[in-house]
Write a structure and sequence with these properties.
about 20% strand, about 270 residues, globular, seven-stranded mixed β-sheet, 10 helices, alpha/beta, two-stranded antiparallel ribbon
Length: about 270
């Protein structure tokens, strides 16, 4: 099976699970993907300070340096949400958006590219808004929302979605875009114990030391466990037999079309 061309878009400085997802890709062979690049995403909120995308970019570059992978393209994303605080879909041009456009446009006519957003989807939504014809050349995987499978309704009151609600709505509205969603209510099942994780990290050299220091600094010394939301989405993509999906309709306020949503994961 031919590997999927793949871009990972990450708000790496928000929490610690982003770094573990990236580190997993940087080590070992992953025959399912042809990794084209790692882009940085904004994650502004009242406690985050300014220029969040630059914080994410710095951590991305740290991980690439540790693994001698600075040759992997790592374009900078936008540092502001798509549109306006009350809505609209003004695209935010950035090196990351242009990288997505360039890679999609370079694909053969019968091929698609995977773009996985493990934070706000500002860069992907902006790329499509800037070059709408790439929508049918992309398979999008995003982490966010909550979903009630009994009532069949969406809940957009969730961290990644609230970081750029306009971008999330734009992707839901984009006909022709194959969209796969990992709701937080499913990803929450994937939790790592600090003691076990640190035991593994002692065997991982400089990367292990870096990840352990980040856990201790960000989560604090009393965080005995951590939900690895971003790793859950990555593993669901790499191991689809462990993560079932169903097709559901988009929320009623969005363009009505079918999208894919994960119903469970084998944690």
């Amino acid at each position: 099976e031919k590997p999927s061309t793949f871009i990972l878009d990450s708000d790496t400085a928000t929490e610690i699970d982003d770094l573990f997802a990236i580190a997993f890709l940087l080590y070992g062979e992953h025959p399912k993907i042809d990794w084209l690049g790692l882009s940085s995403a904004q994650w502004y909120h009242v406690w985050s300070g300014d220029s969040t995308v630059y914080q994410s970019q710095q951590l991305n570059e740290d991980l690439l340096r540790i693994t001698n992978r600075m040759n992997l393209p790592h374009p900078l994303g936008a540092d502001i949400i798509m549109g306006k605080p009350w809505g609209d879909y003004d695209a935010r041009d950035s090196p990351a958006a242009q990288f997505i456009i360039d890679q999609a446009m370079a694909l053969p006519p019968d091929e698609k590219m995977v773009v996985m957003c493990i934070g706000a989807s500002t860069n992907l939504a902006s790329a499509i808004a800037l070059q709408p014809e790439i929508a049918n050349k992309i398979v999008a995987y995003t982490l966010g929302f909550r979903y009630d499978f009994d009532g069949k309704f969406w809940n957009k009151d969730e961290f990644n979605i609230r970081r750029d609600l306009n971008a999330a709505n734009y992707l839901l509205n984009t006909e022709g875009l194959e969209l796969h969603e990992m709701p937080i209510s499913v990803a929450n099942k994937y939790t790592w114990a600090r003691a076990t994780t640190f035991g593994h990290l002692t065997k991982a050299g400089e990367m292990g030391e870096y990840l352990r220091a980040r856990w201790e600094k960000h989560a604090g010394p009393d965080a005995a466990k951590w939900v690895m939301w971003d790793v859950a989405l990555l593993q669901a993509f790499l191991k689809p037999e462990q993560a079932p999906e169903i097709s559901v309709m988009t929320p009623p306020e969005n363009t009505q079309r079918g999208v894919w949503i994960y119903t469970d994961i084998d944690a």
